[in-house]
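User: Some background: our group keeps a shared notebook of sequences we're curious about, and every so often someone picks one and asks for a predicted structure to add to the entry. Today it's my turn. The entry only has the sequence so far, pasted here. Could you supply the structure so I can complete it?
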Amino acid sequence: MQKACLAKAVPTLNQREHRILSERWLREDRTTLEELASEYGVSCERIRQIESRAMVKLRKATKSETGSNMGTLTVARRAGRSSGAKGEQDRPGTQ
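Assistant: Of course. Here's the predicted structure to add to the notebook entry:
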């Protein structure tokens, strides 16, 4: 059910948000903030902000789709965690 909700929520993302999430979360060899920042000509912080906003969009879309808290996906929860050590924040899930 979560996969179906997520599939319906992905179109709410714009092309840049979709690409950043794909590069940061769906690839085995994940792209770093620095690599994406260089590609888009923005700061690492801006890429992180775009990633965070895209996760919020997905959470809202999946929540409205299910009408419950099931929209809070595990991946979305990981994006909301704060990083412990400097340098770890360029890779999702490196807590």
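Suggested note for the entry: Residues 44-66 form the longest helix (23 residues). The helical segments are 2-9, 15-26, 33-40, 44-66, 74-79.
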